[in-house]
Each structure stands twice: as structure tokens, then as C-alpha cells.
Amino acid sequence: MSTNADCFIVLPTNCANGCLILGRNADDATAVGVATEICYYDVSDVLEGKTDGGAALEPVGDAQRVILQKPKPGLWGGDFGANEKGVAISLSWSGGGEEQATDTDCLLGTDIVRIALAACQQVEDAVDRVGELVAKHSGDNAKLNFIVCDPTAAWLLSCAGKVWAAEKLQASWLRLPSGGLTVTDNVDKSSEGLDKSASFAAAHDAEAQAPAADWCGPRPAGDGNYTQQDMFETLRLASGLGSRAANVSVLSGGKGSGGSISCHWFTGTPNAADSVFKPFVFAPKPRISPLTQVQADAEQTLLHSLHGNRKPAALEHLRSLERSCVDELNNYFSIQDHASDELDELLKDCVEAEVKFYR
């Protein structure tokens, strides 16, 4: 399955409390009916199992807990995720020969997302790790775009086969539509020996450069007032018939940040305009609902199936609950510097409350 996503990045200078906000609409009209899974991994199991590309997993000295979104059931890796240190990674586009890379000594882009999140505590370490994994295990014909963030910075990383280039985002906000390689002339990290005098995207696929696109929805104004609610609105206005699950990561804890608890919001259902966002934080012992995972002998998550039978009135009530949840969490984050065990079942409770409106 190819990966396409319309992504929005807002750096801390624009955001309330000095956080960094990453929003993502998965986009694939051919896969709207395919369930998206949300899975949590503790340090003991985050690197267990077999990668989808076939490459063997290497041990990590200090593994991190990870929340991961999977674009289809049964994948080992994911197209979006975050770890307990506030690192978030999005696979925003995949093209080329990824499908042919399975069952070899390769890693798919989704594998790379999970491995890098498990291994890294800071954004530049994650960029380097993604680059190392690409150089060693990417398929020869694969073309991939990643967005790598933590509370302090956002990086764009493009790869063509085993060659890669990364750019540290300087613009205070950016929309990255899917459809081609993102990194062009500004290269801050790269494969060894890369010719930085030429556009990376043009040199490796002149017909697959990411298209330009204007912002959608509430525009960051540079006044430090942009919030996750603004990003929810942006993703809803940018969504369409081909939109799948949406995510928003609010990354806190950087220099100048007004808080230290990052929060990750998932719809787990198609089309943000018809969905609600549910929050997850790395509390001491998080538990997420089995309704966000495909169970034995099923083809869909129960959340996805029931959402498909929703009534219009349910969405109005759920949007009200979503706003209340945002307000309550923002208040909690303003007075707490860590997530306590009372938030262990935050995502679980929100998912199960949503499902009650669909039954």
C-alpha cells in the first residue's frame, strides 16, 4: 500500500504555549474502506516481531515507548507515530518500488518510522537514524518523504533508493501535500558524498517533486495563538472523499514551551470532517482500547465499522465532547509537569465514549 498524506507543520513561534504542532490527513481514495489501527508499544515489545520489509531488527540500548498508527491491519510498522520523548515521525509519501521490497533485507518506510521512534530521544538523532536505515535497507526503487519533529524543530527528509537528503524547516509554518519528493535545494544533512549543488528532488525524479499548496483553514499569524483546535479545523477543511485517518501531535517541552506534556490526537476513522479527535499521552501505564485494533476473524476495527453507520446527530454531540476534552486537558497541562496515572486510560475512555454514540 502506498502512503499519501497532506501534512501541516506549525513551529513554536506561532503556537500557544510555545509548542510545535504537526497535523496529518492520510489521503488514498482507494483505501478509505481499509481500517486504520492505533497501537501502543511498551519498551519490552516495541521492537519485537518481523519487519514488513524483511530486514532483521537490530538491538537498541535504550528503547522508547511508542504510539503508532498503521495504515492497514497487520502491518508491523506505521505511517505516523510518536514516542515518550516527544519525537513524532510522519511518512508523508511513498512511491517507486516499495511493494517489491518485501521479504528481502529491506525496510519499508513504515518499518523505518517504528524503528526510529523506538530508538531516538531527540529530533536530530531521529533524522540521523532514519537516514542510516534508508542508506542500509531502503529498496533500490523506493521514494519516500518523512517529517521528523520534536518540540524544538521540524525536519523534512526525502530519499530515493538508498540516497537521502534532509532539510531543517526554517519557515514558521508549512503545508506539505503528498505527491513527490520534498527536499530540493536546501540540504542540511544527507547521504555521504551527495552533490548538494543540485536539487535533490529534481536530480532523483524530476516528475515527482511535491506540488506547492497554500495553507487551509486558520492561518498561523505569528502571534503565538495557534492551537490544536485550529489544526483540527485545518485538517477538516483540507479533507475530502479520499481522506482517511487524521492525526495531530502537540509537542511540548522545548525551550520556551509553556508545558512539558506532549499530546497526540487520533481520529482512527476516515475523513476528519466526519470524525472526532481522541487524545493520547504517555502516562505511566497507558491502555488503549481494543476497538482501535482489528481483532481475530475481523477485517475492520470496531471503531471503523461503527463509525460507518453513524447518524448526523451523533457527530454534533461528539464535537462538543471533543471541545470539552481539549479544554480540560489544556487546563491539566497548565498545572501539571507530567502525566499521572489518572491519564492511563485517556484514549481508551474517549474511544469507548465515541462508540456509544454509534450503537
TrEMBL record:
Residues 74-152 form the Peptidase C45 hydrolase domain. GO terms for biological process: proteolysis. Pfam families: AAT. GO terms for molecular function: cysteine-type exopeptidase activity; dipeptidase activity. Belongs to the peptidase C69 family. Secernin subfamily. This is GH19004. The lineage of its organism: Eukaryota, Metazoa, Ecdysozoa, Arthropoda, Hexapoda.
